[in-house]
Write a structure and sequence with these properties.
Number of helices: 4
Strand order of the largest sheet: 1-2-3-4-6-5
Helix content: 40-55%
Strand content: 15-25%
Number of strands: 6
Structural class: alpha+beta
Length: 115
């Protein structure tokens, strides 16, 4: 079985981060099966009619990069997380907000499909 470039990236991260990164990867892959997987800006990236989302292992969190429009759209639901213009920080000591990530990825799929 071939491993994808994103799976290879996950294998290079600390063991205690790999489960969350794999969970994020699998969720996005299942929601966007037609997206191309690649590395961009040194981060795992899903690409479909443009960049869809990026994610990465960071020093103190898991970074998720769904574009400023997605962060603005879901700002109320993201209130418990540290965010910036284009990034969300998921703390290492908490479960990933799977339902929220799913909504954001679906939003990005719809956004890219309409461009």
């Amino acid at each position: 079985m071939n491993t994808s470039i994103i799976e290879e990236y996950i294998l290079t991260t600390p063991a205690d981060r790999q489960e969350k990164l794999t969970q994020l990867y699998t969720l996005i892959k299942n929601l966007a099966p037609k997206a191309t997987e690649k590395m961009a800006y040194g981060m795992p990236t899903f690409y479909l009619k443009g960049n869809l989302v990026h994610f990465a292992n960071m020093k103190n969190h898991i970074g998720f990069y769904p574009t400023p429009a997605a962060i603005d759209t879901f700002k109320e639901e993201l209130a418990g997380f540290k965010t910036s213009k284009g990034a969300i920080q998921f703390p290492l000591d908490k479960e990933l907000p799977i339902e929220l990530i799913q909504k954001i990825v679906l939003f990005r799929l719809a956004e890219n499909a309409s461009e």
